Each structure stands twice: as structure tokens, then as C-alpha cells.
Amino acid sequence: MISKIANIFKVKDLRKKVLFTLSLLIVYRLGGQVMIPGFASMESVLDFTTSSQAGIKDGILSLYDQFVGGFLSQASIFTLGIMPYISASIVIQLMTAVVPYFQRLKKEGAEGNKKIIQLTRYGTVIIAIFQSFGLAAYFWSLKPAAGENFIVLDSAALFFFVTILTLVTGTIFVMWLGEQITDYGIGNGISLIITVGILAAAPNTFGALFTSMYEDPENKLLFGIVLIILLVLITMFVVLLTSAQRKIPVQFAKRVVGRKVYGGQASFIPLKILTAGVMPIIFAQALMFLPGLVAQLSGWTFLSDIFAATHPVYTVCFALLIIVFTYFYTAIAFNPVDVADNMKKQGGFIPGVRPGKPTAEFLDNILTRVTLPASIALAFIAIIPTLVNQIGNVDIMLSYFFGGTSIIIAVGVALDTMQQIEGQLVSRHYDSFLKTGKIKGRSKNRY
User: Fold this and answer.
1) Is 60 exceeded by the pLDDT of residue 172?
2) Does domain 12-200 have CATH number 1.10.3370.10?
């Protein structure tokens, strides 16, 4: 591992990509310290928004605050984070499965993908406008309880205009940062931004845990050790689940081209058990925020009670959404028909299975069977914090950090990022090998 990290900085292009990615992530964290204009001070905002009166300390807003790196409780310009982009991506990807226009765009290749990305950006702006209006109304509703030292603007119209403009602009900027990381950095820009926001709570979480263990070793020491062991076990299980593969054997027929014989070798298709990766958990979590946010902003207490993070209805709906999105995103990421057609063109076949449609059906059946246990395992890991909270009477935010959604996203994104870096290292190695001159073409003046 140390040698791989050292090799990253030996390759000039890869070193630039890593440093570029780190610099943009630093910009994201530093920019999040800027408050929305109209609030008195950072101290007054933190003192009130983290209290139980504001509803951010407990409930669905606390989980949302964790996903945006604590920027909600700070009334930051990046309060919405990247969540509007995630919501827009969900809508667009659903449309690619049911709307003919989006289906045509998906089949057009690179040009169609550009159009889909552009539509996703427009959708992000529209969703950000609605969400920023809701957050502006929420912050304005806190003014009477917090006093005049919370919001200094007396005009509601001016406060709403400034807040909406600031939050929408902040979301667009965060979306741009993610796209820049994807295009010019090491990739996974959007996922990396979410991961950085989650990991930003690590120092405070570990600090609070170790402080409680030090102050009350008789009651808290065993509790802290169990949490740390649980964190290690869940991390190991997520790594195994993300890396597990079902290898499907493939045989290539021999082809004679001129005087050379191609093919004839055996290979395999590395079919991932969890093809969808961390995207189902991100999509499901983004949708589960909506009922809680509506309840917080509208005052509908029944929604707030049902979709509380510890309520059984929330847990069941969250688990079902993860399973559904796992199948949905797997269908988008892996197309058995395309794989079967490509194998047929290259002269490949699965032993005992006829090429063409039978091969596609065979791959689809295997993919369906392996995705079911993977999706159930993913859903189970996601609801572990709720089970720990109910069984062990552990604070919900502490249990959410030491297991569940946070661990799945952080570990999954870390593995994807390391695979991309390793792939780029391999490609650089092959490039340098070809440039050494050991492999040369036939000279024109040889004969």
C-alpha cells in the first residue's frame, strides 16, 4: 500500500490529478465556512441550530446535516451541498428507463450523454430553488425563538431573496467542483464531495467518544470498544461485499487472419455481486430526506413522527428503497444484451450456452440472483445504526457514524477511487513500456 501511494507521486500526470482533487476538496471545505448573508454571527447560529429547539440536533435534519458536512447547522452558503444534484440525477435516470426521448439520448453515445448531463444541471437548479425556499422559510421561522441576534434582516422578502440566491449559487458551485474533479481529477467528484462531508464529522465524533470513555471508564469503556469493533467489522464486510465477483467463464473461438491465429484462449467475465456500488444508498438516502424536510417545514407532525430516523416505518422504507435502487442502477450499469452482442462479434461464448439471446438471458438470470443477496446485505448494513440505537440505547448520530450509510459510502468511494488510481498507474506503466523503443514497427526501408 505504501509503495502504491509513493508511485502516485512519481507519475507527473497522476500527481497533478491528485493534487488538483485535493485542492478542490479544500476549497469546498473552506467555502463552507462562509455564512449566508443576513445572519448575525457563526457563534449565534451554531448555539441555536444545534439546540433541540431548532430541530437540527435531533431528527432527519441532523442526518441531512451530516451528509452536507455540518453546513446546515452553520447556515453556510453550501447548506444544500450536492443533494439537489443527486435528486436531479435520480429523476433523469428514472426517465431514461421510461421516457422514449431520454432512451434515445442514452443510445446516442457521447453526444446524448452530454445532453443528459446538461438536463441534469437544469434540474439541479430547479430543485435547488425549491429546497432553498424551504430552508429560507425554516430559518425565518426560527427567528422568534432565537431572538434578534439570529437574523439581522428585518425584511422577510429581502432575506428570502438573498438566501435563495446564495444557496442556489452555492449548489451550482459545488456541482461545478464535482464535475471538475471528475473531468480533470481522479474521478468520482460527486461521491468524493459527499464522502468528505461525512468524514468531516470524524474528529468531533471520535473526540466525543474518547472523552466519554475517559470521564466515565466504568460505564463507557466497554461501550466504546464495542463501537470500534463494530466499525472494523462493518468496514471489512463492506470491502468484501464491494469487491466480491462472480466469474463467468468465456471461451473464444480460433480465428485465422492471414498467417496468424487469434483467439482460442479461455477468459471470464468479472461480474460484480454489487454492480451498483454505493449509488443505491445515496439515491435512497436522498429520497428519504424529503418527507422529513417537508414535515420540518410544514409543521405536519405525523410525517415527522413516521419518518423519524428511529421509526420502524422509516427503517422499512429505507431498506426497500435500497433494494429497489440496487436493481435499478444495476440494470443501468450492466446491460446483458450489449455484453452478449459484443461477445458474439468477438467470437466468444459461454460453455454450454448458445451465443446471442440465450447468452443475454443467462447473464441476466445470474445477475438477478447475485444482486438479491447483495441488495439485502446492503440494506441490512444501512439499518444497523437504527438497530444499535434501539437495542443498545446509543445516540442515533453516534451510531450513524460508526455504521450504516456513512461507512458504506466512505468505504465504497475509497475503493472506487483506489481502483481508478491503480488503473491509471497501470496505463502509465504500459505507456512508458511502449515508449522505450523495445517494440518497434517494421521499417519502410527494410526491404
Assistant:
1) yes
2) yes
